[in-house]
């Protein structure tokens, strides 16, 4: 695990650091670099769909390419995180440059309409090679901002992530409209190369703990019980949130709306998440309870808000409950990330963040599969299924964390 030192004039940070964080040059440099590096992930699903249509006119081909990309990214995250942990910021730069080159190669292959059997391995490489980058950036953050600011920093980062997911489809569409279906993949390559360039603005690797001289980390290993619990609940979050969103096109006609409005509801969820992340980041220092308990309560509450979407009587009710649930998404992401940072030993954090990132992606895939199976029963069941799983696991997690903090053992 690499650690770095970013010089700051703030020696004694206030509890939240919200105002100071906005004036911290290191935070903005990190945000620009990390945001650029993660943007291609949000661009990939739509970009692959357009690429498939460019090759043979079939959106199904694009879905195959997108599935191959997502699966490879999830499986490659831990492996990539391990390599980046050993190489430091140089590892980030190499992974981003290689990913950008592979994206250009895939775009060229799409442009000349190579057979799908050759495109799929390229899509796998585009997903796998830079897969450890998001975890690597998150492991850098405790070395850039003081420890007392981390709650705000992680929450605001989760909010900024929502902006990326809102902007990514527009970027892909603009590239495709201006040029053709291969341009969406080429745009991913451009952004990856830009991210590699922005890593030059990050501090050099140094053998110092973190930004205010106190190591941020625990004593647990990568596959310790607290870490695995974090991964499992991150999986649950990905399953519940993505499953509900995927089910919306089938659900909306049952609510008197059009399937095409699903994008508006999904955007509402993301916009609410952005607001929730910004608010939580500014106010989190006033809240009580451990990080684990807060995260588990937010997880259960997210399931509680998403479940009524399946039983909404009209479109407005569905939109309202989605917005309420969305307020919790970015804070929950930030809490899970901060909890993992304070659980894992510093030499395993890059790998741990990569595993967490991968499990959320696998959870999203599992949520889509659950929706596909339950659609045979009915659209409301397809929406309720992932939300119910999320709520159940959230309640179990709350009960477990409360037992732990009371010093009790299960069964007593």
TrEMBL record:
<dbReference type="InterPro" id="IPR020846">
    <property type="entry name" value="MFS_dom"/>
</dbReference>
<keyword id="KW-1133">Transmembrane helix</keyword>
<feature type="domain" description="Major facilitator superfamily (MFS) profile">
    <location>
        <begin position="226"/>
        <end position="412"/>
    </location>
</feature>
<dbReference type="Pfam" id="PF07690">
    <property type="entry name" value="MFS_1"/>
</dbReference>
<feature type="transmembrane region" description="Helical">
    <location>
        <begin position="231"/>
        <end position="255"/>
    </location>
</feature>
<keyword id="KW-0812">Transmembrane</keyword>
<feature type="transmembrane region" description="Helical">
    <location>
        <begin position="59"/>
        <end position="78"/>
    </location>
</feature>
<feature type="transmembrane region" description="Helical">
    <location>
        <begin position="174"/>
        <end position="198"/>
    </location>
</feature>
<feature type="transmembrane region" description="Helical">
    <location>
        <begin position="90"/>
        <end position="110"/>
    </location>
</feature>
<feature type="transmembrane region" description="Helical">
    <location>
        <begin position="355"/>
        <end position="377"/>
    </location>
</feature>
<protein>
    <recommendedName>
        <fullName>Major facilitator superfamily (MFS) profile domain-containing protein</fullName>
    </recommendedName>
</protein>
<feature type="transmembrane region" description="Helical">
    <location>
        <begin position="383"/>
        <end position="400"/>
    </location>
</feature>
<dbReference type="InterPro" id="IPR011701">
    <property type="entry name" value="MFS"/>
</dbReference>
<feature type="transmembrane region" description="Helical">
    <location>
        <begin position="295"/>
        <end position="311"/>
    </location>
</feature>
<keyword id="KW-0472">Membrane</keyword>
<feature type="transmembrane region" description="Helical">
    <location>
        <begin position="116"/>
        <end position="137"/>
    </location>
</feature>
<dbReference type="InterPro" id="IPR036259">
    <property type="entry name" value="MFS_trans_sf"/>
</dbReference>
<feature type="transmembrane region" description="Helical">
    <location>
        <begin position="261"/>
        <end position="283"/>
    </location>
</feature>
């Amino acid at each position: 695990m690499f650690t770095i030192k970013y010089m700051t004039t703030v020696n004694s940070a206030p509890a939240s650091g919200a105002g100071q964080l906005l004036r911290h040059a290191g935070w903005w440099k990190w945000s620009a670099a990390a945001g650029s590096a993660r943007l291609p992930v949000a661009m990939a699903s739509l970009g692959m769909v357009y690429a498939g249509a460019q090759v043979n006119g079939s959106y199904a081909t694009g879905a195959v390419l997108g599935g191959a990309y997502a699966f490879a990214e999830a499986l490659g995250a831990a492996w990539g995180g391990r390599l980046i942990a050993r190489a430091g910021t140089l590892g980030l730069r190499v992974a981003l440059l290689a990913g950008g080159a592979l994206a250009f190669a895939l775009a060229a292959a799409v442009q000349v309409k190579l057979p799908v059997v050759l495109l799929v391995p390229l899509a796998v490489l585009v997903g796998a090679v830079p897969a450890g980058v998001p975890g690597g950036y998150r492991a850098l953050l405790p070395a850039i901002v003081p420890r007392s600011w981390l709650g705000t920093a992680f929450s605001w980062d989760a909010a900024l992530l929502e902006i990326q997911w809102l902007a990514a489809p527009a970027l892909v569409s603009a590239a495709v409209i201006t040029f053709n279906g291969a341009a969406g993949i080429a745009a991913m390559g451009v952004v990856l190369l830009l991210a590699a360039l922005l890593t030059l603005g990050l501090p050099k690797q140094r053998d110092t703990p973190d930004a205010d001289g106190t190591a941020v980390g625990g004593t647990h290993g990568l596959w310790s019980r607290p870490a695995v619990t974090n991964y499992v609940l991150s999986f649950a979050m990905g399953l519940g949130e993505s499953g509900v969103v995927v089910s919306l096109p089938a659900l909306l006609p049952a609510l008197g709306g059009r399937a095409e409005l699903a994008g508006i509801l999904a955007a509402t969820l993301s916009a609410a998440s952005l607001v929730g992340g910004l608010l939580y980041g500014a106010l989190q220092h006033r809240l009580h309870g451990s990080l684990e308990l807060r995260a588990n309560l937010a997880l259960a509450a997210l399931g509680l808000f998403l479940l009524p979407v399946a039983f909404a009587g009209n479109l407005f009710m569905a939109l309202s409950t989605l917005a309420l649930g969305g307020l919790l998404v970015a804070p929950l992401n930030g809490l899970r990330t901060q909890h993992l940072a304070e659980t894992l030993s510093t030499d395993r954090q890059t790998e741990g963040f990569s595993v967490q990132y991968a499990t959320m992606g696998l959870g999203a895939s599992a949520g889509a599969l659950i929706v596909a199976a339950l659609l045979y029963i009915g659209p409301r069941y397809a929406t309720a299924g992932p939300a119910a799983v999320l709520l159940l696991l959230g309640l179990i997690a709350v009960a477990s964390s409360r037992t732990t903090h009371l010093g009790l053992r299960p069964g007593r």
